[in-house]
Specification:
Elements (H helix, E strand, L loop, with lengths): L1 H28 L4 E2 L4 E2 L2 E7 L9 H13 L5 E6 H10 L3 H8 L6 E7 L2 E4 L13 E11 L8 E10 L2 H16 L2 H7 L3 E2 L10 E2 L1 H20 L3 E2 L5 E3 H7 L1 H4 L8 E3 L2 E5 L4 H9 L10 E10 L15 E10 L5 H18 L3
Helix pairs in contact: 1-2, 3-4
């Protein structure tokens, strides 16, 4: 376990340091660029840039080449600490508005750390490798748009993603794995097998199941229903929309409204497309009186829900705006709870293992 943790720490430092190297490469190739953030992430790193030039995949080899030159120079990573006011003045003078915003979010009296490597410097808490010469196995993979701080109200920046590993062999193995995965991409298979489509006429993230795909769905749903009946579940069905009052009572409007579709006016009353099935199942329970002798109740539904996912995160069938959810609610006494939790975990694992998951 200690070795695994140490390896993760080493990889994190390498990937974080490579993000700085990439930022320096972009700075040297595209003068005037402004910098967002550049963290280490699973399998690699990214950096967000604000500049007039629109990055394309064709730009990545030149940036990689410049990065290798910077790595060869073995620039040391040096930590500098400044009082908050001095750090603000420093980055304001450089016109780095995103760094200024980040510093302004820190408490008064904070000590701000900056890491320098060669001609590049960045607002950063670290840690980093000793020098750029220790960085080796990386590859820039793709470009994407990213709103500053994840809000569509802010500027759209350009994000360059990359992968990085300790050794070239590990990098090569990962890239080969990704190539194989791309061959089995569900979006590609969906077209080849004529399973489904998504188009702008219907709307982004709204899936049209073709006959081949609908047949597969039928087989899966039939299996799902049979297994639930065996497991002591009853099936329920609920509407696709509900009054605003329902979603206010459930708390969805208070905590989840940004991910719900806009309300529709029906007879002067606001209704919402359902993002979840839970409130409807509670209303079914409330429709009758129940004794503890009736418990546990196990209710399941293949309920179609609608969620207003941001356009930038929609991805084939993985991130959509309308989908059918395998949903269930169990109502039981406190004494029954442990047994019900154990059983629902066993039941779920059995379903997943049937599909090889």
């Amino acid at each position: 376990m200690a070795e695994e943790n140490n390896k993760e720490e080493i990889l994190h430092k390498m990937r974080h340091s490579l993000a700085h190297v990439m930022a320096q490469a972009v700075m040297e190739l595209y003068p005037g660029v402004k910098f967002g953030i550049g963290p280490a992430i699973d399998n690699g790193f990214y950096y967000d840039f604000d500049l007039e030039h629109h990055f394309t995949p064709e730009d990545l080899p030149a940036i990689e080449k410049k990065m290798k030159h910077i790595i060869g120079a073995a620039h040391k990573f040096e930590r500098v600490e400044l009082p908050r006011a001095e750090a603000l003045k420093h980055f304001e003078g450089k016109g780095e508005k995103y760094k200024v915003e980040l510093i302004n979010d820190l408490p008064e009296g904070s000590v701000i750390s900056i890491y320098k490597s060669g001609p590049f410097e960045d607002l950063c808490k670290g840690p980093h490798v000793d020098h750029t010469g220790k960085l080796k196995a990386f590859k820039l993979t793709h470009v994407a748009g990213a709103y500053w701080r994840g809000s569509e109200k802010n500027a759209m920046l350009q994000r360059i993603y990359a992968v990085a590993f300790e050794t070239p062999a590990e990098l090569d193995a990962y890239l080969k794995q990704q190539e194989e995965a791309a061959k089995r991409d569900h979006r590609k298979l969906g077209r080849q097998l004529d399973l489904y489509s998504i188009n702008e006429t219907v709307g982004p993230g709204l899936v049209l199941w073709h006959p081949n795909g609908a047949r597969i769905r039928h087989e899966i749903e039939t299996f799902w229903k049979e297994e639930h009946f065996k497991g002591g579940y009853d099936l329920v069905n609920t509407p696709h929309i509900g009054r605003a009052q329902l979603w206010e009572t459930s708390g969805h409007l208070g905590f989840y409204k940004d991910s719900m579709y806009a309300p529709m006016d029906i007879d002067g009353i606001e209704y919402y497309a359902k993002p979840m099935n839970c409130p409807f199942h509670i209303e079914i329970y409330k429709a009758n009186s129940h004794s503890y002798r009736d418990l546990p109740l196990r209710w399941a539904e293949l309920g179609t829900v609608y969620r207003f996912e941001k356009a930038g995160v929609l991805h084939g069938l993985m991130r959509v705006r309308g989908f059918t959810q395998d949903d269930a609610h169990l109502i039981c006494t406190q004494e029954q709870m442990e047994a019900e939790v154990i059983e629902v975990l066993r039941f779920s694992m059995n379903i997943l293992r049937t599909f090889g998951l």
